[in-house]
Sequence to fold (263 residues):
Amino acid sequence: MKRLFSLIILALPGCTEAPVQSDDIGQYEQTLCSNVDGVPSAMAALAVSTATELGRWQPTTDFEVRSGALALTRIGKRQCEDGRCWNTQAILDLQRAPEGEVIIGDAALDAKAFSRALIQNYRQQQRCAADADGQRSDARECSALPHQLELESTASGACDTIFTFHASGPSGKPLKNPSALAEKLIYVGYPENEYLSFTSTSSTVSIDPTWGLNDTGETSTGACTPACMRISASDLSGDCCSCGGVNRDFQRASFSHSLYLCM
Fold:
């Protein structure tokens, strides 16, 4: 995955459309990028990794509540090339993070709040799907919409990184209404979670931002990575990092194989 260009843009309630004047950037970032307990951006990152690795948003099929946490189903894991969905699993592992150990942006992740939010939102997604299957006239459109998602581009946004996916039917034919895929994101807090910043065109859907929770394939050479944590398929153990202005080394987290903390 490669970063294409840098652009400060804004979309209400998220961060993906109209240009922002430079004098207003600080104000908008403070308002739209607030991430008090790390939960909003972690949920947005889960949506991105699901689209990237599983190639779809079918949460009631690909996830389940198991042992008091949201987890991948066997069907979900079979959607991933590696059979384990390493990036998605690393984000789910955050539900077990020790208190205060994971820093996302400027916020210490509240792992218990993250787990509670995921389970609550997943249950809501299930209810919405059940209502749609029962053809309730007042139900949101949550019935299965056959689709496939493929990463098209990444770009800098006002909060973090915008991930844009090409959306099509399973056979590659255009979707009639890609915007309807937003209803598949209830499990990660749609529409209240402003970090999703969901937008769509006739052929794409976009999400922003993620605070380094999704591996873009970029690495730093000859310099310390300015991040308190990284999720990576490569072993970052011992690599230089900078957290809170202090240079340290990445260490693999005790609760996840693919998550590294700047310690």
